[in-house]
C-alpha cells in the first residue's frame, strides 16, 4: 500500500496515511480513462443545434429565370444553398450525443485517474479544512502553504465556509467524495483531499 504524507492547513507534515491499493494502487487503464473523459464531455452537449436544409426553407418554388438566353447561370430555385436566404448543405439536426459506460468501466476509470495522481505525487492529503468564516484570502493562504495553485479540493464532510471561500479562486474547484469525476481529476494539476474524503472514497470504491 502507498503511504502519503498528511499536512495541516499551515503546510506542515503531521503524519502519514496508508492508501488502499484497491482504489489508489490499481493498474492504470489509459483507454478507459480516455473513454470516461470523452463520455463526460459528450454527455454535457445539449444536441439542440438546428439549421434548415433547402427542403425546409420557405419559398423558392418558382424558377427565378428561364433556363437559357439570359446570360445568367442556370438556376432552379432561390432557396438553393448558394443563394442568400437559401438552405444549408448537410444542415445539423438535433441529436443525442450520449456515450454510456457501464458501472465497472466508470469505477475503474476513476480508480485509474486517482492512481495516476498518486503515482505522480500530485495527491495531497490534509488533516482537515475548517474555516470559521467565509474568507477567500484564508483559503488561498492554505493553498500557498501546500504549494498548490491549480487544484481539485475534495472534502468528505459538508463544509460550507470552505466551499464558499474557494468559490472565487479561478484555478480551484471544490467537490465532495461522492461527486468527483475523471475529467476534474485530470483537469486540475493537483488533487487535495481531506482525510475524511479519502476514507469516504475508499468506502465507496474499494
TrEMBL record:
Gene3D superfamilies: 3.40.1370.10. InterPro entries: Ribosomal_uL4, Ribosomal_uL4-like, Ribosomal_uL4_dom_sf. GO terms for biological process: translation. GO terms for molecular function: rRNA binding; structural constituent of ribosome. Pfam families: Ribosomal_L4 (PF00573). Residues 44-87 are annotated as: Disordered. One of its GO terms (cellular component) is ribosome. It comes from the Bacteria. SUPFAM superfamilies: Ribosomal protein L4. Keywords: Ribonucleoprotein, Ribosomal protein, RNA-binding, rRNA-binding. Transmembrane segments: none annotated. PANTHER family: 50S RIBOSOMAL PROTEIN L4 (PTHR10746), LARGE RIBOSOMAL SUBUNIT PROTEIN UL4M (PTHR10746:SF6). One of the primary rRNA binding proteins, this protein initially binds near the 5'-end of the 23S rRNA. It is important during the early stages of 50S assembly. It makes multiple contacts with different domains of the 23S rRNA in the assembled 50S subunit and ribosome. Forms part of the polypeptide exit tunnel. Belongs to the universal ribosomal protein uL4 family. Part of the 50S ribosomal subunit. HAMAP family: Ribosomal_uL4_B. This is Large ribosomal subunit protein uL4. It comes from Lacrimispora saccharolytica (strain ATCC 35040 / DSM 2544 / NRCC 2533 / WM1) (Clostridium saccharolyticum). The gene is rplD.
